[in-house]
Design a protein that fits this description.
Blueprint (H helix, E strand, L loop, with lengths): L3 E5 L4 E4 L2 E4 L5 E5 L6 E3 L12 H14 L4 H18 L3 H16 L2 H9 L2 H14 L1
Antiparallel strand pairs: 1-4, 2-3, 2-5
Helix pairs in contact: 1-2, 1-4, 2-3, 3-4
């Protein structure tokens, strides 16, 4: 059986197709077998005020699509535009591969995997900002 497997800590919350689900007292695993379910771990959610860097803003757009707070068609266009802009700024081969994959996932309508790829760029972005602060 394919699909996504969520491993949840006690009392962890997850958003699935707009519904907030809270785990019970024990660790558990959920198998999501619906291919187009929109899923967001609330512990990973970016709050509006935290979307204050280029990568965080693009991740936030993906998150809004997943949570149902942004329509897929408008959100997809904004997401693709943001990914394209990031490709100009993060032009090392590893980042470009992640961004190309994220773009492909957006085109396929797989916003969860697009967001997952984009989130891997957050530590790189932080290092670049840290380097820029040190050199200025």
């Amino acid at each position: 059986m394919g699909g996504l497997v969520l491993k949840l800590a006690p009392r962890e919350r997850v958003l699935i197709n707009g519904a907030v689900i809270e785990n019970g007292e024990r660790r558990s695993r959920l198998s999501i077998v619906s291919p187009n379910a929109n899923i967001l771990r609330l512990r990973d959610a970016i709050r509006p005020g935290e979307a204050n860097t280029p990568v965080r803003r693009v991740c936030y757009i993906a998150q809004l699509i997943l949570s149902g707070d942004a329509p897929e068609d408008t959100g997809s266009r904004q997401l693709c535009q943001g990914i394209s802009q990031l490709m100009h700024a993060l032009n090392d081969e590893c980042s470009l591969t992640l961004l190309r994959d994220a773009h492909r996932f957006v085109e396929e309508g797989d916003f969860y995997r697009a967001m997952k790829n984009l989130r891997t760029l957050l530590p790189r972005e932080e290092k670049l900002f840290e380097l820029a602060r040190k050199t200025s």
